[in-house]
Amino acid sequence: MLPPIASRFVAGESDAAALERARRLNDRGVGAILNLLGEHYDRPERAGADADTYERLVGDIGRTDLDACVSVKPSQLGLDAGADTFRRTLSRVVDRADEAGVFVWIDMEDHTTTDATLDAFEAETRRHGGTVGVCLQANLRRTRADLERLAGLPGKVRLVKGAYDEPAEIAYTDHQRVNEAYRDHLGYLFRAFDGGVAVGSHDPAMIEHARGLHDEYGTDFEIQMLMGVREDAQFELAREFDVYQYAPYGSRWLSYFYRRVAERKENLAFAVRAIVN
Ligand code: FAD
Q: What residues are in contact with ligand 1 under a 6 Å CB criterion?
């Protein structure tokens, strides 16, 4: 069972708990991005099992009036077993999601996976006419060129700062430089895209920057934040903008919970306070 200390960041262990989280978020004006926790499967059968769960989940979402979508990780859908396995497994999930009217996001993992992830995104979003989105990372030096590639495609793009420690030859490692790149890329997204821009950040400065760009260019955008992080701000921003909360769930919650605590020690204090209050 999910201990209360983890429930600040993880929606629960079952599909039912994830759908319940989506319902509660929707009641407060926020959409849900549901992610089944799992990554780096060496055996294709495990990727297949997670794809089965996603197929069931998108079917369940489709039978409700929930404002909810899903976000999948390439290595969860078999990328470690090869790009073909990933492409086949992803297609299966996106086909079913499209039938059910549910949007599918593809998370971005470390730089060794970028090409395979973008190729798979491009194939799926062309096939389905834009019911798929992909994440790009501002810390990678290649990202401007990747954004230019995606500008002509249907679908959505989520811009994040980047969660993986990458080598300095291919990535900005200084936080200020990453912030600068994030601002530049947001500028490009708002200028060059017709819509479908997702600001995946908790940073008030980046959200203000996006607000200014929206006022200037009129491009539609949404804000995405993680479950358990700046939730008051999420509900507040939802009065003005489309806001989605990325809510992970499933039995493999332990390493995700450790990651949230490790990246910001205040997160542990928040989680503990949530139990004692
Ligand atoms: P940071 O630079 O970490 O923080 C900037 C400011 O934001 C802080 O000074 C503070 O004011 C505020 N802030 C940040 N965290 C907190 C907190 N816990 N409590 C209070 N204030 C806070 N990364 C990937 O590499 N691939 C992905 O597919 C991916 N998907 C993501 C999806 C979503 C919806 C989100 C929100 C992030 C995702 N990330 C992904 C993670 C991302 O790359 C960053 O590591 C993460 O979002 C931290 O960067 P930040 O922009 O929030 O700001």
A: 107-108, 135, 137, 160-164, 200-204, 224-226, 229-230, 246, 264, 267
The CA 233 to ligand 1 mean position distance, Å, reads: 14
Mutation choice for ligand 1 from 159, 203, 260, 261, CB with most ligand atoms inside 8 A: 203
pLDDT exceeds cutoff 90 at 198: yes
Q: What CATH number should be reported for the domain holding residue 143?
A: 3.20.20.220
* Residue whose tokens read 């019911």: 131
CA gap 223, 241 in Å, rounded = 7
C-alpha 84 – ligand 1 centre gap (Å): 31
pLDDT band at 259 (very low <50, low <70, confident <90, very high): confident
At residue 188, the pLDDT reads 98
Whole-angstrom distance, CA of residue 160 vs CA of residue 265: 21
Residue-averaged pLDDT of the chain: 94
End-to-end CA distance of the chain: 20
Three-class SS state of 64: coil
Atom of ligand 1 lying closest to residue 246 CA: 34
Q: Which of 219, 225, 139 is nearest to 180 (CA)?
A: 139
Q: For the chain, what is the domain count?
A: 1
- CA 166 distance to own-chain centroid: 19
Measured by CA distance, the residue closest to atom 7 of ligand 1 is 203
Give me ligand 1 centre to Cα 14, in Å. Answer: 25
Report which of 134, 179, 187, 122 is spatially closest to residue 158, judged by C-alpha positions: 134
Instruction: Give the tens place of pLDDT for each residue, 38-66.
Output: 999 988 899 999 999 999 999 999 999 99
| Residue 175 lies in domain | 4-276
pTM for this entry: 0.95
